[in-house]
Amino acid sequence: MLIDSHCHLDFLKEREIEKAISVGVKGFVIPGIKGYSYIANKLSEKYKEVYYAVGVHPLYIKEAPKSVFETILEVASENPNCIAIGEIGLDFFEKGVDRELQAFYFEKQLEIARKTKKPVIIHLRKGFKEFLDITSNYKDLTYIMHMFSGKLDFAKALLKRFDKVYFSFGAPAIRSNAKKSVEVLKGIPEEIVLVETDSPDLPPEGFNPPNTPSNLPYIAEKIAERIGLEKSYFFDLTLKNTKEAFKCSFQD
Ligand SMILES: [Zn+2]
Predict the structure, then answer these.
(1) Residue 96: how many CB atoms within 10 A of its CB?
(2) For the chain, what is the total number of helices (H) and then of strands (E)?
(3) 78: CA distance to ligand 1 center in Å?
(4) Ligand 1 centroid to residue 123 C-alpha, Å
(5) Rounded distance from Cα 197 to ligand 1 centre (Å)
(6) Separation of 59 CA from ligand 1 center, angstroms?
(7) Residue 6's closest CA among 176, 181, 145?
(8) Which residues neighbour ligand 1 (ion) by CB within 5 Å?
(9) Is 2-246 in CATH node 3.40.50.300?
């Protein structure tokens, strides 16, 4: 059994949920992009395996409603199927993004996470220094580094800095040239490793898009292979880690 710690089911056909369950993916976390997703909430009511997060992705700030912070606070406080704040963070990959606005939204949502005692799902591309600056006042939160692409040094710095941090990996970690991710996977404690698909994005090499949570067993097996762990051991390990990271038992 596996949990897909990050999949945008609200952008996929609903039958993909049943399909993934039938191949052993028994839990799903749908991250927020523009705050609250009505579809994510509906899916969480229909499938006991589905949970979601609320948050504004750094590249979707302009598309989020004005009242988004109030909504995030309200849903995270009141809905038991909402188990995290995310995906939030910084994305300075493209030139010309509004860095200050991203930083403002990021910090606002870290505050909500603290208030509601929820873990945060972090989207981070470039902006490592700014990330460290902003989070220096929020070391007490639980961080889930989604599709972590940093170096081992950076991972170690985060480990030292935060009370709790988890690192999540998907298909990019099994690419033929994924040396950096393998180094990180081997260099951090195994109790903080999670797996995800980020579907519909990032299908494994040689797979047709869209990516789906049904690809998670393949991805997780390949990751285990890369770091020299037994498949069933690695599956059980990430299952336990994911439950701890989200403080959620993911009923089966
Ligand atoms: Zn995502």
Answers:
(1) 5
(2) 9, 9
(3) 23
(4) 7
(5) 9
(6) 11
(7) 145
(8) 198
(9) no
Classified as helix, coil or strand, 193 is strand
Distance 103 CA to ligand 1 centre (A): 18
Per domain, the residue ranges of the chain are 2-246
HSE value, Cβ hemisphere, 13 Å, CA-based, for 6: 28
How many CB atoms within 10 Å of residue 220? 26
Confidence of residue 252 (pLDDT cuts 50, 70, 90): low
Dist. CA 149–CA 139, nearest whole Å:
21
Separation of CA 181 and ligand 1 centre (Å): 18
Each residue of 39-67: pLDDT tens digit?
Answer: 999 999 999 999 999 999 999 999 999 99
- DSSP assignment string, 82-136: EEEEEEEEEE--STT--HHHHHHHHHHHHHHHHHHT--EEEEEES-HHHHHHHHT
Q: Give the whole-angstrom CA distance, residue 204 versus residue 206.
A: 6
